[in-house]
Specification:
The chain is about 45% helix and about 0% strand.
């Protein structure tokens, strides 16, 4: 009886292997959508399997200006921005492919995210609002809206929006400029602005921005009054 059961088990295994060997291999479409699914692990509300992605740090990419996305991919590849994971992903990609990736995400609809609780005293939030809308002329700190648009949703083709970004992400970018691990082509206007701001002011700006609701139409503006308050190497069209 025992040997008969063993033979039946072996036959079952042989049949299983035979079915596996003859089954058609699963084909994966070679499309840009498929290739960029990995980006959803960090930059989407849900990943490729439909699982929620943490909104506390990574920015969403859909609808951002294509020029901005392209230049950031170049910055990661060429060492002006330092984040090892991103550098690893784009290190060997040519310019044309990076431009194609940027256009792909720019063509997607923007993700409208809920505002975050401010977590700051009223005085700090007011200081953040002042810097965003009025700047500080005495210290040559321009208002954020002077470059990022009156609605703070960015400007085509190279200026990103500021609403809907996680507060921790905004703080980290200010820290990157301050510590020179995030740079742009000279003149690096954001590095200059950051150097003129205190840490309390950085926290005030990031806290105020994160607490603002996004408009339902969060697409970037098509244009903005020029020249910009400061020359910016990150906006080549302005040079």
């Amino acid at each position: 009886m025992r040997s008969r059961s063993l033979r039946l088990s072996l036959l079952a295994l042989v049949g299983l292997f035979a079915c596996t060997a003859t089954a058609a291999p699963q084909t994966v479409p070679d499309t840009l959508d498929q290739r960029l699914l990995a980006c959803a692990t960090c930059h989407a509300r849900v990943d490729a399997r439909g699982n929620p992605v943490n909104d506390s740090f990574y920015p969403r990419l859909g609808g951002k200006p294509a020029g901005y996305l392209y230049h950031q991919l170049l910055n990661f590849r060429d060492g002006r921005r330092q984040y090892p994971l991103m550098t690893y992903l784009v290190d060997h990609l040519p310019d044309d492919y990076l431009r194609e990736i940027a256009k792909h995400f720019a063509a997607l609809p923007p993700t409208v995210l809920p505002a975050q609780p401010p977590g700051l005293p009223a005085a700090a939030l007011e200081r953040g609002r002042q810097l965003v809308h009025e700047g500080d002329a005495a210290r040559r700190i321009p208002a954020c809206i002077a470059c990022h648009g009156a609605r703070l949703t960015g400007v085509q083709p190279n200026i990103p929006g500021l609403l809907g970004l996680p507060r921790d992400y905004v703080n980290a970018q200010f820290g990157g400029w301050r510590n020179k691990v995030r740079r742009a082509h000279a003149p690096d206007c954001m590095a200059d602005i950051t150097a003129r701001m205190s840490l309390d002011e950085v926290a005030a700006v990031s806290g105020w921005l994160a607490a603002q609701p996004m408009p339902q139409d969060a697409r970037p503006a098509e244009s903005i009054a020029r020249p910009l308050p400061l020359a910016c190497g990150s906006d080549p069209e302005a040079r």
